[in-house]
Amino acid sequence: MSTGSPAHDGSARDVSRAGRLAAERLDVDRLDTGRLAAERPEGYDPRAFEPFAVTVDLAVFTIRAGQLHTLLIRRGEPPYAGRWALPGGFLHARESAEDAARRELAEETGLPDALVADLQLEQLRTYSAPDRDPRMRVVSVAYTALVPDLPEPAASGGGDADQARWTPVATVGPLAFDHAAILADALDRTGAKLEYTCVATAFCPPEFTLGELQQVYETVWGATLDRPNFRRKVLASPGFVTPVPGASRLTGGRGKPAALYRRGPATTLHPPLLRPR
Amino acid sequence: MSTGSPAHDGSARDVSRAGRLAAERLDVDRLDTGRLAAERPEGYDPRAFEPFAVTVDLAVFTIRAGQLHTLLIRRGEPPYAGRWALPGGFLHARESAEDAARRELAEETGLPDALVADLQLEQLRTYSAPDRDPRMRVVSVAYTALVPDLPEPAASGGGDADQARWTPVATVGPLAFDHAAILADALDRTGAKLEYTCVATAFCPPEFTLGELQQVYETVWGATLDRPNFRRKVLASPGFVTPVPGASRLTGGRGKPAALYRRGPATTLHPPLLRPR
DNA sequence: ACAAAAGTGTTTTCCGTACACCCATGG
DNA sequence: CCATGGGTGTACGGAAAACACTTTTGT
Q1: Which of A14, A41, A123, B69 is deepest in the core (most CB within 10 A)?
Q2: Domain range B197-263, CATH architecture
Q3: Predicted local confidence at residue B164, as pLDDT
Q4: Following DSSP, what letter does each residue of A188-228 receive, concatenated?
Q5: Domain B19-194 has CATH 3.90.79.10
Q6: What is the pTM of this model?
Q7: Domain residue limits, chain A
């Protein structure tokens, strides 16, 4: 697909992100970087095994106030000190990348583990440019997560030097390492997945109206949809949503109360819900 | 998407695959595996940085005699000695995963580098289960490549102990490590990509007929398509194929000679070419 | 009574499907 | 002249886009 090819970037998490992450602090100086080719005169010895650091990066999206937001953390240590970055961290020794992503997500957002356990979490892509991280060779597996609007966003960790904050994707400035490219890829993928999967419900609370579901599509796609047609399409897709006998009122104080739905058992959308144009 | 979750498997390339790969031979005993949690009594030290080996695995597909084939190599060393496996290998020190995949593909297939340079190569997924490889912690980035039917398949390397062979996917037996899961994922992805991208032409020689292109779809999908409708859809997709003023005869000796086409500049298919049912 | 949001119906257009038919070539 | 494969035309059915209309609430 697209080749963001972010050249001079990196993604290794370091000692930043407050004391709550002390359990996975990394002392870069302890790393055996002596074999890295960058520190050898010229070329490398092909017979030497090169150890890599492996991390996960997370593009976590939610919708707040009709805008798509992503979770960013502020780096406290060089490189890129003071810059915003995607949450993430190193794989533990006996932990898969997805397990690591789930663990990091729980740590960063403070969500209960039970909620994180059955969360939409999709592997996006692996970023492996040799100079992603100026310090060492880091290969990072990026994941995308879609979460409902959380009452307390990521306010855990307190008002420390290392903040974590929901940021509207439209106002995201330059990010550390190649995280801008990762974020762009995640946005592309998320928009595309809405077309042929049921992931849109992941943005919604357990019970939601069709109007809220439509707002998810409109927010991510940046387009307006015809309400009657959207309604028909969703209800015609078996297993996309299941009705809840009961109604509630939303999106403003007035208007007819809307029926409530839960996400259905289906994961893919047949036929797809194509975006306009 | 799907979660193959291959549990007890691995993917590290070792000293197998003939002498032509000597440049990247790996002596497992030289690896610093002392820190691996599997060799410690119980649990692990979260503060210790764990070095990972990073490899690429390649699911290379071609169509020969109306059957989808994949390129497999036979392992000469334990673990899984004698078993077939996907081609692949370790990342070099200053090499991205895609570069490594391209290099390995050139080495395994013996294709000229120029041809490999502008080849369809798509990152599939990264496999990181902790026990993928019984010897050590290996994270593998899997790629999918689609190539035309090659005159000399993978006959380079000679009749050595380590063979490389095109195998019909229908007759693939058990594979080493989690390669069966990777192959299954690659098949799923390839079938899906035919629907909304132009990658099908990657299976074809530079000049091809619409009948050959249709056979690609029918072979990968295992379904028959209506020829007139297929023709219209392809020609209606701008940039999918471009006509060549000239004709040739094919697929048997008789019948009207078919017009020839080259692949066009487009990469995505609007509207998509959905498979039946 | 009016505004705002949910829900229903209808028309028109377009696309996918199925299938009939003609063309060119080899045996 | 018949089998085989390439290429064209066309009619039918269903889905999607556009839009008018009804229903139910709050103010």
Answers
A1: B69
A2: Orthogonal Bundle (1.10)
A3: 85
A4: HHHHHHHHHBSGGGGGS-SSB-HHHHHHHHHHHHT----HH
A5: yes
A6: 0.83
A7: 19-194, 197-263
